Fold this sequence. Notes:
By secondary structure, this protein is an alpha+beta fold. The protein has a single domain, classed as Jelly Rolls (Sandwich). 17% of the residues lie in helices and 45% in strands. The protein has a five-stranded antiparallel β-sheet with strand order 1-2-13-4-11. Strands 3-8-7 form a three-stranded antiparallel β-sheet, with no helix packed on it. The longest helix is centred in the first third of the chain and has 17 residues. About 9% of the residues have low confidence.
Amino acid sequence: MKVGVVITALLLPLVSEARADVIFKYISAADGAAQVERPKANAASDYIADGPGFKLSFAMRNKPGKVEQHSDWNDEIIIQEGDVLLNYGGTSVNAKPSGPGELRGDSIGGGKSLLMHPGDIVTIPAGMPHQMLIKTPVMRYILLKTRKGN
C-alpha cells in the first residue's frame, strides 16, 4: 500500500496542473485502505480528486468485472495488491449502454490478455474494451481517468 501512496503523491501535482482549483491532499496508506473498503454511496464520492479532464480514485475488486468500454475516458491503472488478468482490445461481446458514453459487455472477442501484479501500470485508451478478472481474493488499485484528448 505504501507504493500506492507514493505514486499518488507523485501523480497529484501532475493532476493539479490540469485544473488550478485542486487542493493539496495527503492520504495515508491506512486511510486509503479504509476508503477502498467503505461501502460506496455513489460513484462521485469515490474520487480523491476530479476535474473536467481527470478523476483519481482508489478502487478494490473482489470479483471479476464486466467488459468496460469508455468512449470519452482513458484509464490509467496502478496495481497495488493482488493479481489480475486484464483482457483488452478486440470487441466487446453483447455490449449494452450502461451510461453516457459507457458500454458493458459479457466478454471480449479477439482481444489479448496480460497478467498483472502489484506495482504494474497499464494505460487503456478511450474506446478500448477491457475486463479485469481477479486471480487473488482481493485486488486493490489506483485509477486515474483522463478525458480523451487532454
